[in-house]
Design a protein that fits this description.
Alpha-Beta Plaits; flat; four-stranded antiparallel sheet; 23% helix; alpha+beta
Length: 103
């Protein structure tokens, strides 16, 4: 099976500890509901820097990452099907799916 990187974009931060618990429960239910599919459940990430040949910008780019996971699936389409159920969609975010190429 191939491995795929899920890069989460957008979403919103919980406005209260109670909402945070609800959001975390939704994420854990989604991840745990896919069993061994999730190789690494991942984590949220902080603001990033965009590094180019002309310098470094503190803006996180046009569509900054908000987190990541690594999943195992037969095809990118199968991985995308897993991503369709991601709780980030309920908070205005998206999931970018890319195959991790073995070197």
């Amino acid at each position: 099976m191939a491995k795929f990187l899920f890069v989460y974009h957008g979403g919103s931060k919980p406005s209260s500890p109670e909402e945070g618990e609800k959001v975390m429960a939704a994420w854990m239910s989604w991840i745990n509901g896919h069993g061994a599919t999730f190789v690494d459940g991942g984590n949220p990430v902080g603001m990033s820097k965009t590094v180019t040949s002309s310098g470094v910008a503190d803006n996180g780019g046009a569509n900054p990452a908000s987190g990541y996971s690594i999943v195992s699936a037969d095809t990118i389409d199968a991985a995308a099907d897993v991503a369709k159920g991601c709780p980030i969609h309920d908070y205005g975010g998206s999931v970018e799916v890319a195959e991790i190429m073995e070197m």
